[in-house]
Every structure is written in structure tokens, then in C-alpha cells.
From TrEMBL:
Record has Cell membrane as a keyword: yes
Protein name: LrgA
One GO location term (cellular component): plasma membrane
UniProt entry tagged with the keyword Membrane: yes
InterPro entries to which the protein is assigned, alphabetical: LrgA/CidA
Membrane disposition: Multi-pass membrane protein
Species name: Rhodospirillum rubrum (strain ATCC 11170 / ATH 1.1.1 / DSM 467 / LMG 4362 / NCIMB 8255 / S1)
Length: 138
């Protein structure tokens, strides 16, 4: 009973260590290889690969990862505090450069929406063709 309780107590810190370890490993790889992607993104990909391998390799941490992830997501608003401080700190720059900033924000949003819509249409056409081939082959 003591061993089981001890494992339960260590589950969350171990899962958090695994998340931070993947992020650290991603950071180290990006810096060592001078890759043009953020370290945490590579760390997330490493975590994904680790979890996918978890179907064949025993990973005791993966059972408590959802709980840790939920806890982080519940407190995600705290991560926006540095952005708010940056806006306050550079308020004068924002006031001076409001037009180019606004144009770039709205323009990039419009381009992202257009790209998403075109991608969606292309994928729908591909799926329709694939479905038609499967139905035609029957």
C-alpha cells in the first residue's frame, strides 16, 4: 500500500518533469543544431513521439500527463502577463506606429483566413475524389 501511495504522490511531479524535460531537450537540440524553429515546438514533437512510442514501450508518466496538462491549461492566462507588460512598456511605440501595426495585423489575419479556406477547399476536393474512387470500385 505504501509503495502504491508513493507512486501516486510522485506521478504529477514526474509528469511535469517529463514535460519540462522534453522542452529542455528541444531547446538544447535547436541551439546545438541552429535550427530555425522554437525549442519548445521541437520539445512538443519529441513528447508526441515519446507518447506514440508509449504504445510499445511502458511509459508510467503518460497516465498522469493529462492531469498535468489540464492544470497548465487552466492557468494559461498567467502566461499572457508578459505580453500585457510589453504592451504597457512599449505603449508610446504602439501609439506612434499604430497604422503599420494595424495594417499588418489585419492583413496577416486576412491572409491566414484565405489560406485556411483554400486549404479546406483543396482537402475537400481530394476527399471527394477519394470517396468517389472507393464508391466507383465497388
Amino acid at each position: 500500500m505504501f509503495v502504491r501511495r508513493f507512486e501516486e504522490v510522485l506521478a504529477l511531479p514526474t509528469a511535469m518533469t517529463a514535460l519540462l524535460g522534453c522542452q529542455l531537450l528541444g531547446e538544447l537540440i535547436v541551439r546545438a543544431l541552429h535550427l530555425p524553429i522554437p525549442g519548445p515546438v521541437l520539445g512538443l514533437l519529441l513528447l508526441l513521439a515519446w507518447l506514440l512510442l508509449g504504445t510499445t514501450v511502458t511509459l508510467p508518466v503518460s497516465s498522469s500527463l493529462p492531469e498535468v496538462a489540464r492544470g497548465l491549461l487552466n492557468h494559461m492566462s498567467l502566461l499572457f502577463i508578459p505580453a500585457g507588460v510589453g504592451i504597457i512598456l512599449h505603449g508610446q511605440t504602439l501609439a506612434d506606429q499604430w497604422l503599420p501595426i494595424s495594417v499588418s495585423l489585419f492583413g496577416s489575419t486576412a491572409l491566414a483566413l484565405i489560406a485556411t479556406a483554400l486549404t479546406f477547399r483543396a482537402v475537400c476536393k481530394i476527399m471527394e475524389r477519394s470517396k468517389a474512387k472507393k464508391e466507383g470500385g465497388r
